[in-house]
Design brief:
By secondary structure, the protein is of the alpha/beta class. It has 12 helices and 15 strands. The protein has 3 domains: about 100 residues, Rossmann fold; about 120 residues, 2-Layer Sandwich (D-amino Acid Aminotransferase, Chain A, domain 1), CATH 3.30.470; about 80 residues, ATP-grasp fold, A domain (Dna Ligase, domain 1, 2-Layer Sandwich). Helix 4 packs antiparallel against helix 5. About 40% of the residues are buried.
Amino acid sequence: MTTVLLSAAGAPGAARLIRALRDNGEREVRVVGTDMSERAIGRHLCDAFHVVPAGSDPAYADTILDLVARESVDVVLPQSSFDLEGLAGRRGEFPVPVLVSSPDTIHRSNDKAESYALLQRIGVRTVEFRRVAGAEQVDAAARELGYPERPVCFKPVFSSGSRGFRILDPTVDRAHQLLHERPGSVAMTLDDATALLDGDTTELLVMELATGGERTIDGIADGARVVLGHPKTREAMRAGLAMYFVTLDDPELMEIADRIVRELRIEWFFNIQLVGDRVIEVNPRISTIVYQEDLNLPWLGVKRALGEISDDELAALAARVRPGRTALRYFDQVEFDA
């Protein structure tokens, strides 16, 4: 039996990931889930569950270290961007593999301004941006990038997923938003944004708005190349989450992924996101996977960590990727007596 500690067991992809680890076709897997909320779905789906501090808490890594010993964990698999930095800085202290890149890789990936500058330096198409803080600088940067003649967008320098992302669009209809759209619309005018940001000093990236279809590249890397991975579409957004994915055959996207992995020295799982032909996000962690019965990427990563499969053997499995393989995400629920 293999025991995997899975962090952020309340994340949107946790339920499917837990099932994939168990349905590996080779052996019994015991999943120990952790989350900062006791209401995480992992509490009900994992074999054991523990509430832990936030990934940014100085006590986080010590708590995970303690759980590794108490639960006889074989591999630590972090699932959230917020858990990476605390684990990366301490990974050498763990007696078991921790599937996280180096602290430098995590910092350069999570700092979106640094990521964009790096992408520009290695010739990968990305967005023009300005790193700013405060309402006045946001206003100036937006106008430099073409507002109000064209929409722009912004998000915090350090963020995960769509948190804090907003589109600045002078044509947005606030009455229509109020009466006909769900709460949480991402579009607003620049005047509305600067009014809300008055007095706030959070570092932000003001960026040109990339347009076009969304695609991602998911895989396992060794710090110098993509060992195994494939691109997929990212479609049907709901509440900031993609709900529909189709696997692609696109050598050009895989070459882009190789360049980014090599420059950032990404190890283990990664997810690279594009809008149109521009890379907008590099996540050195596992993300939503399109599973096949003969290609279970999370389980293969665990086997690699345990020394049970070589990188050459993993690379040979690329021939199994089936373009057109589709994943449809949906909402589910569990019932229990509190």
